[in-house]
Specification:
Elements: H1 3-16, H2 32-63, E1 67-71, E2 77-80, H3 82-88, H4 92-95, H5 111-133, E3 145-152, E4 158-168, E5 177-184, H6 186-237, H7 247-274, H8 277-282, H9 284-297, E6 302-307, H10 316-337, E7 341-349, E8 354-361, H11 368-373, H12 378-387, E9 392-397, E10 403-410
Helix pairs in contact: 1-2, 6-7, 9-10, 10-12
């Protein structure tokens, strides 16, 4: 047997092991075996070039910080980069074969359905443009799509991401893959929440200052005026006084005294609305009880306030935020809901390590979508206050079935 066959066998073994630089020198015969060897040497060159290109692509694919996921035509994951594995905390072996929607936070819109519909719409629009302009681009060319959506890690931690997607065309196939690029928005959301909290804290500090100024200055002045007017009335009623105002003056003084008493009451209410002293001194629960007592005193509502024993003490800024939400909820129930009963529950979900505050009223309810689309700030303010503490609020309402809020806020960093 020609010894060159053994060299060919060894060369193929080298290629199977990835050693594509191996070669066989041609003999002077230049016969059919040498021709075959020349072809194998060329194969080695092609394998070497392909491997270099593939390694170069893989280095780029796995080195980018964004998550990259490749989907097939059914929305099933075919490939992921290293960032996706690290961020989602799921191995590539487990990720490949899953449907992309299985990785989403519960309650999120179906992602693959959105991607497919958006790309088809954009491609159709691009095709119409190409026909008008005479462009000869391929039928699958077109603008990509983008959306914000939450994914969930293997440890059930939601991650807000912006998802960009486009077609990934394959040679010899009419059905394209889909290339998803996901950017983690956690840091950006944290900064947005920090800005919101800073704004809210600034507002609350200003309210505290105004309340203190009203109480310390205007309140004392009104007390002094009330004292002087009261002295005049007492003098008028004293028969030993030489000079006594006439009855008309006496009536005016009495009315003035009554008016000032009303002003003092209103001043206390203003100070309470700006910053309840009870909230500063005794905390959230006592402040909510005081707020409800003031409303109950007017005979408008029946309140049912329950606080579970495991409800913790909170930091002051969070207590203020929750108090404002409850205050607005009660005001809306009075002004719009026409409710007669309100339930307030302060609880702590130990399994999820979250605070849980439930608010319910039996009023006439409202259309949540209509309220959101109308541009009103009420629900937006509630959501922004809760989200600024990385929490979530579930708002439910229906006609003649009242309104309910369920507020969940992580306990970490929010306790005193």
């Amino acid at each position: 047997m020609d010894p060159r066959f053994k060299k060919i066998n060894n060369l193929l073994i080298d290629y199977s092991m990835g050693m594509f630089t191996s070669r066989i020198e041609l003999t002077e015969k230049l016969d059919e075996i040498d021709s075959f060897i020349s072809g194998i040497n060329m194969l080695g060159e092609e394998l070497k070039t392909t491997t270099i290109s593939r390694n170069y692509f893989n280095n780029i694919f796995h080195s980018v910080s964004d998550l990259i996921i490749v989907l097939n035509e059914k929305g099933v994951i075919e490939n992921v980069n290293r960032s996706a594995v690290e961020k989602l905390k799921i191995s590539s072996v487990k990720l490949i074969g899953l449907k992309i929607d299985q990785l989403l936070e519960p309650g999120e819109k179906p992602l693959f359905q959105f991607i497919r519909a958006s790309l088809e719409k954009n491609t159709a629009a691009e095709g119409d443009h190409q026909k008008k302009s005479g462009s000869g681009l391929g039928s699958r060319q077109g603008s990509g799509c983008e959306t914000e959506i939450k994914f969930r890690t293997s440890s059930d931690i939601p991650i807000p991401m912006v998802c960009s997607c486009n077609y990934l065309l394959r040679e010899g196939s009419e059905m394209p893959n889909y290339l998803l690029t996901l950017r983690d928005l956690t840091r950006q959301k944290e900064m947005e929440h920090l800005v919101i909290r800073t704004i809210n804290d600034t507002q609350e500090n200003e309210r505290t200052r105004v309340a203190k100024d009203l109480h310390d200055s205007l309140g004392q002045q009104l007390s002094a005026v009330k004292f002087y007017l009261g002295s005049l009335i007492s003098a008028n009623e004293n028969p030993d006084r030489e000079s006594i105002p006439d009855k008309s003056s006496d009536a005016i003084l009495k009315k003035s005294n009554e008016a000032l008493s009303v002003m003092q009451t209103e001043l206390r209410n203003i100070c309470f609305n700006l910053m309840p002293k009870t909230l500063e001194q005794f905390g959230l629960i006592e402040a909510v009880h005081e707020l409800c007592r003031k409303t109950e005193f007017k005979g408008l509502f029946e309140f049912n306030i329950r606080t579970e024993k495991n409800f913790p003490s909170l930091n002051k800024s969070l207590e203020i935020a929750i108090f404002r939400i409850i205050q607005e909820f009660i005001n809306n129930a009075i002004k719009h809901g026409k409710a007669t009963r309100i339930k307030i529950l302060f609880n702590r979900d130990l399994k999820k390590d979250k605070l849980k505050i439930e608010l319910k009223e039996n009023g006439k309810g409202f259309d949540i979508e209509l309220a959101d689309s109308s541009g009103g700030m009420g629900l937006k303010n509630v959501r922004s206050r809760v989200q600024s503490y990385n929490g979530e609020v579930k708002i439910s309402s229906a006609e003649d079935k009242g309104t309910a809020y369920e507020i969940l806020i992580p306990m970490q960093k929010n306790l005193t």
